[in-house]
Input
Amino acid sequence: MARDLPIPPPSSDHASPDAGVSAARADARRIASSDRENFVVLSKLVPENLRDDFAAVYAFCRHTDDLADEHEHTEKSRREAAATLADARVHLHAACDNLKAPGLYLNLARTIHKHRIPLKLFDDLLNAFEQDQRVLSYDTWDRLLDYCRRSADPVGRIVLILGGHRPSAEDPASAPLEALSDKVCTGLQLANFWQDARSDLLDRHRVYMPTEDTRLTPDQLRGLAEREGNTDAEVRFSSALRPLVRRTRTLFDEAGNLHEQVHPSIAAPVWLFHRAGIRLLDKVESIGYTTLWQRPRITKADRVKMLAKAWWIARKAGA
Output
């Protein structure tokens, strides 16, 4: 049974738009400050003047991602999730047009207008979540990366805009930053896929490991999952995942020192996203790539170390 979502689903019952926005803003900060992810999204590393904007974006991403994932994953529930995501798109566009919408979307619309964020970036995210209801596996690496371009890369581009970098369509100087940001975001998305290989397969019936690369079909993966502790099964799966982890690490390597090239206000968060992805790959490697049977986690000690380094980066950047 699906758990309750962290933010109520879209509703048209709002007696006071301002009250709805205020409540949504408080909820957004609470959700973005939670420990649900591998690291806390909203920390004091984010400048005070950007915290509500970071939180508004994260709350939208978290809510719509939950709409896509937190259901029974039957054909019927996937159709219902797709319909709910379509409603979310309607509410988003309505809010941005200053029409009646739930507080979550009105709060996000304020951030979108304030920073002149292209609505297409949020539409791309919704497109990816809707795709998750139709596409349950990927045959090639390129098709997987195409999915990540919509499911992950828009978030990094939004962060760049929050930091004052205009989209490359307006300012060509942003193009190199966007390219590096895309590598970080795609890498982080892939690292999460490798971490969650078991739950994606068994709970959501999704396989993100490209079948042409792994030579493993979803049915074969389910068969391997049933053979916990079997050496041959572990070797077969880890041999398939290892090259994917290596390619993912290359994306992080190619991103270089993106945090040194962005505005100081977002240098520390950008570094933290980047480093968390790399650390997650380290964790996958440390268990011998056996994520079909165990889920590696970034520990509290890891987080303390990363946050300490992020604080140093923030001070050095003068944020």
Notes: The two ends are 44 Å apart (CA to CA). Residues 1-15 have pLDDT under 50 and may be disordered. The first helix runs from residue 17 to 32.
